[in-house]
Specification:
About 25% of the residues lie in helices and about 45% in strands. The protein has about 140 residues and is of the alpha+beta class. It has a single domain, classed as Alpha-D-Glucose-1,6-Bisphosphate, Chain A, domain 4 (2-Layer Sandwich). The protein is globular and about 45 Å long.
Length: about 140
């Protein structure tokens, strides 16, 4: 069953800087605590990552591996699941200028599939993923 959630946060940094941070996938392990490794597998003609492999250890859950395909529609970064230890994961970060600050909206649809979790735990995990990701992004962007 796919859980779909959205969360948003305001970051005291420019849209360009937040976009730059989000596009630097290989630096994610330095500021996103559940990401152990991120490897860019393919890039587009503009040098932006289009396929990225992640190894994550989300809290009490076992370490997982998955590959995502990225696109860049306007001031957004979107991804779709390619393969790995989940059944499905897709989502986006949408960035909006808010008077020199950046409003970031994180949309996430996730189906862990193989993990034997009750529905309410999956829903709580999806909400927590977006909340923690945005909090860590804010902390990193405002410190850099």
């Amino acid at each position: 069953m796919t859980e779909t959630v959205s969360s948003e946060i305001e970051i005291d940094s420019s849209v360009a800087r937040v976009f730059e941070i989000l596009c630097d996938f290989e630096a994610y392990p330095s500021w996103a605590r559940s990401i152990r490794e991120a490897t860019v597998l393919e890039k587009d003609a503009d040098g932006r990552a289009t396929k990225v492999e992640f190894r994550v250890a989300p809290g009490p859950l076992p370490q997982m591996r998955y590959i995502l395909h990225y696109t860049y529609p306007g001031d957004a970064i979107a991804w779709d699941y390619v393969e790995g230890d989940l059944r499905d994961i897709r989502g986006s970060y949408q960035l909006e200028d808010s008077g020199g600050r950046t409003k970031v909206t994180y949309h996430l649809a996730i189906d862990p599939g193989k993990l034997p979790l009750p529905g309410f735990v999956k829903a709580r995990a999806a909400r927590e993923i977006t909340r923690v990701a945005l909090k860590e992004l804010k902390k990193h962007a405002e410190a850099s």
